[in-house]
Amino acid sequence: MTKKNMDVLVGIIFFALAGFLYIVAGQMPTRDGGIAALNTGFYPRMLSILLGILSISMVIGAVRTQDDGDKSQKWWATKSAFIMFLVTFVLLVAYPFVMEYLGFATASFIFIACMTWMLSSNENRNPLFMFGITIVLTTVVYIIFKMVLAIPFPRGLLI
Amino acid sequence: MELFSMDLYLSGLQYFANPGMFLASFLGVLVGIVFGALPGLTTTMTIAVFIPFTFGMSPFISFAFLLGLYTGAVYGGSVSAILMNIPGTPSAIATSLDGYPMSQAGRAGEAIGISTISSTIGGFLSVFVLMFAAPAIASIALKFSAEEYVGITLIGLSIIAIISPGSTVKGLLAGVIGLIIGIIGLDPITGYPRFIMGRAELIEGINSIPVMIGMYGLSEMLVQISSSKYKVSVVQKISSIVPPFKNIKRILSTVVRSSFIGVIIGALPAAGGSIAALVAYGQEKRLGKRKELLGTGIIEGIAAPEAANNASTGGALIPMLTLGIPGDPMTAVLMGGLIIQGLRPGPLLFQQQMPFVSSIFISLLLSVVFMCILGLLGARLYAKLISFPKKYLIPAILVFSLIGSYAISNSIFDIWVLIISGFVGFVFRKISIPIPPVILGMILGPLFESNFRRSLMLSEGNWATFVQRPISLFFLIVVILLLTGPTLMKQIKKVTTHK
Predict the structure, then answer these.
(1) Where do the H-state alpha helices sit in B106-145?
(2) Of the N and C termini of chain B, which has fewer Cβ atoms inside 10 Å?
(3) Could you tell me if B204 lies within 8 Å of chain A, comparing CB atoms?
(4) How far is CA B347 from CA B31, B92, B444, in A?
(5) Domain limits of chain B?
(6) Mean pLDDT score, A99-106
């Protein structure tokens, strides 16, 4: 997608968000009479109008610019970068669950091990070294957060 | 109440006898330099990721550490700019222009030495300006009413929208998104819950620290992964570091001039170290004795931006401490660190927490001293560290972000806030919506809303109240000029060239 089309699309999405905000703010309790600023929906509604105006300006601005076919804003450098991004995202989402069920040290160990494995290219993978780094990093995290800062983490099955 | 008293300075002297502050400042500077030197890790991100480490500490120690990080990271950015031609932080962009050519000519050590000395002089000047300007501004700010705060918040948001990369409309839009995030939680006036989606965790509003770690830390890591930017670059070798006296003498006028530029630009709301450094470099190009050689690898080309970006640190703290309005994303994050310690920046801080304010002056001073020592002694070590493979660094930062977000209020919910913010930050970066206005909007949102609605309530709904007070009117005129100025200038230029 070119930068111009992207700006138009983003503007439309923000305009829809502004509309949604406007409607929800309108359903907030209001008092009859009195100063409008006292009502709960007053300020959110004002922001929704501002967002609406700005998103329309963005769309107009984008439409008025010349489409130079610039596709420089690539989301992923390569297909493998996309897969890495996806795996990172899955690991991030899994982290809180693993932390709750197995403990934060175990969750951190799994997370770091998977990430270092994934970010290393095939010829550069040294399992022993990676294991060492993962252990060191997990220990550092454990010492700082559990022992020094004494953060009460959820009690998982492991540590 | 007299804020400009000697007590403010004298009460700070006791902190020189506090070894905890020395240690915190030392560690802060060390970690700051290393993180600042690592390409892709900005100062803002460094501070955001490390805030959770400061929970158990007293506000004095916590801030000594955070200010050490701030000073260290702003300085550290120059190390990779010089050695790898990759500015570690945006403040070091101008440093690479002469730093890298020097490094290629085998003078990397000399370049780092000049950068350290210039940063130190700039840093010292900024501490002194902060010490004397801040109490004076705070005593003026005590007279501000809600209307003035509305005006000054709008100035901050307008400037950050204008200077953010991309169009002003996108900058303003990002600011409004930040303000919208700020409305989540109980209505400050009616107590009605807004947009809390049935989550008790949102009643007090979204916790700003996980949002900042997500938008700065997590999203940056996601960008690096998506663009395969974690391959190691080649680092130049380092020779002698401490510059000879004749070189220090040569750069002295450049350093003094650039330091003043840095402090003034830093103190302007929203204009931080990167702009200060570029302006100082620009001035060197105009006024420097060897201006024609700039860009070829001369020491003045390093001295100007480095003195300016470190001088901007003290300047940037002025609006944050005195008005409660952070000048740039870095001070916005620092303000987050203050708020979780139960301290509310603003003129009242000078009235009610004088010892703490004095400790800030001392901490900043200490951090400059440590920056000088660590900069000169540790250059070879940083050169090694910046080639530390990102494949290990990225997982480490991600885990710190995840656990740090949890640790803020021992809540899994905050991890979700982090992940969502990180993803939103990633999308925003890709669609060129700037992040700093979002953060500033979110931090300033509750303050803006309560002052805005309070003004309207006290004036019984009369909007003219914002233009009836002279200072408030002045602030609003500044906002209008800021937002319309660039377009107006363009139009005027068009008309005059047509003639």
Answers:
(1) 108-141
(2) C
(3) no
(4) 31, 32, 16
(5) 7-498
(6) 91
